[in-house]
Write a structure and sequence with these properties.
Number of strands: 5
Radius of gyration: 13 Å
Order of helices and strands: EEEHEEH
Largest sheet: 5 strands, antiparallel
Length: about 90
C-alpha cells in the first residue's frame, strides 16, 4: 500500500490492482464492518477496476481509498485496519 502522505487525518492509500476492482473491495470492507470510500466516489478518478475502461479508473487497476480517522482512537484505528486487512481476501 502506498500513501499520499499529505494529510495525516485524511489520507489516500493506494492498494495494488490485485485488491480490486474497487466496487468488490468496498463490498468486502462493508461486510467486515469497515466504512471506506473509493476515490472514484469523489469524481477524482483512480477508481481502480481491472484496467482501462473502468468508470473513474486510470487504467492501472489500483484501488484508491479515502480514509477519515481523526475521530478515532489509536486502538479503533488498529482494529479497523485489522478488519480491512482481513476483508481484502487477496
Amino acid at each position: 500500500m502506498t500513501s499520499s502522505g499529505t494529510n495525516p487525518a485524511s489520507d489516500v492509500p493506494t492498494l495494488p490492482g490485485r485488491y480490486g476492482p474497487e466496487a468488490e473491495f468496498l463490498e468486502r470492507a462493508e461486510r467486515a464492518g469497515v466504512a471506506v470510500r473509493g476515490l472514484s466516489s469523489y469524481g477524482m478518478g483512480g477508481g481502480g477496476g481491472c484496467g482501462g475502461g473502468d468508470e473513474g479508473g486510470d487504467g492501472d487497476g489500483a484501488v484508491r481509498l479515502v480514509l477519515g480517522y481523526a475521530h478515532l482512537s489509536v486502538a479503533d484505528i488498529g482494529y479497523g485496519v485489522g478488519l480491512l486487512a482481513g476483508s481484502a481476501g487477496r
